[in-house]
Amino acid sequence: MTWLITGGAGYIGAHVVRALREAGERAVVYDDLSTGVADRVPSDVELVVGSTLDRARLDRTLERHDVSGVIHLAAKKQVGESVEQPLRYYRENVEGLRVLLAAVTAAGVRPFVFSSSAAVYGMPDAGLDGGLVTEETPCVPMSPYGETKLAGEWLVRAAGRAAGLATASLRYFNVAGAASPDLADTGVFNLVPMVFERLTAGEAPRVFGDDYPTPDGTCVRDYIHVADLAEAHVAAAHRLASAAPGTDLTLNIGRGVGVSVREMIDVIGEETGLTTPPVVDPRRPGDPARVVASADRIATELGWTAKRDVREMVASAWAGWPG
Ligand code: WQD
Fold first, then answer.
1. Locate the NAD-dependent epimerase/dehydratase domain: which residues (predicted)?
2. Distance 175 CA to ligand 1 centre (A)
3. Is the ipTM of this complex over 0.90?
4. d(CA 141, CA 118)
């Protein structure tokens, strides 16, 4: 099969391309290079530079490469930016998806994997008191970014039902690490790179709040290695390729293991040798205390479980850190 990977020049998308090829699949990358990097695309994989809002280019790409399945990751993904620019986020993440689905259904392509996010859950009560967030936990997104991902899931499901697609929405938890140094995350927007940046500048890492109702007072998250995440996409793609029309899966992708900000900073100190003690800053608005996935459904549906731990995430991210 030939898979079209939108956003395949991005941090996560490039890992999906790599994992697909390791599984023996053909891949074509479609990316507008707004945040993607052309060098992340292997030289023997074609890169089509285009927007998901460009229907004509999508039509041509699907036809020319005889695409038989789509994995859609192209999107804007900064929570704070989405609060400032909601119209842009709805346009790129929701309208871009609508145009892509129109092209996909017109071309008769059936398997469709959608990149969603734990941001759809917002501040889930289910995460407190040691509980896990299941796919049945109510979705109450707290940002325009999270709203566009939830609306995207609805759009995928509705279009999929109407056109007989086989679809999956994958709700990523906190992604970290790299499969190789050249594929490392280049943005400094999440905990691990933000701590690297402070430490390499000789500054103390920042902890946003240590008075949460968690064991050490800092926020707890479910960190997942990007190489594990990429392998989950391959498992989903394979499942959808032979699934009945109308199949629709919604799956958390996490490890089911909670790690606090302080625990993460400790591992970073051990892996980098940079041990400047953190400073405690005020809480960041909108941060939930604890968000940890139940990863049972994906294990049952796809036979996938994460293999790599937090130490491997930190070590591999550090190996690709430019600073
Ligand atoms: C993790 C924890 C911070 C930096 C976001 C999006 C989510 C998804 C992943 C896109 C929090 C704390 C951070 C620092 C800190 N995005 N922190 N000091 O907020 O869980 O999730 O990214 O798909 O939708 O919301 O991730 O890495 O920003 O923060 O104390 O210097 O680390 O407060 O508790 P978050 P994060």
1. 3-254
2. 10
3. yes
4. 9
Contact 228, 218 (CB under 8 A): no
Residues framing ligand 1 (Cβ under 6 A): 77, 79, 117, 119, 174, 190-191, 194-195, 206-208, 219, 221, 261, 284, 287
Query: How would you write the pLDDT of the chain (323 residues) with one tens digit per residue?
Result: 999 999 999 999 999 999 999 999 999 999 999 999 999 999 999 999 999 999 999 999 999 999 999 999 999 999 999 999 999 999 999 999 999 999 999 999 999 999 999 999 999 887 777 899 999 999 999 999 999 999 999 999 999 999 999 999 999 999 999 999 999 998 889 999 999 999 999 999 999 999 999 999 999 999 999 999 999 999 999 999 999 999 999 999 999 999 999 999 999 999 999 999 999 999 999 899 999 999 999 999 999 999 999 999 999 999 999 96
Atom 33 of ligand 1: nearest residue by CA position: 208
Two tokens, residue 143: 């940002």
Rg (CA), the chain: 19
Identify the bridge partners of residue 48 per DSSP, sorted by sequence position.
Answer: 30
Tokens of 34: 């707004």
Residue nearest (by alpha carbon) to ligand 1 atom 3: 208
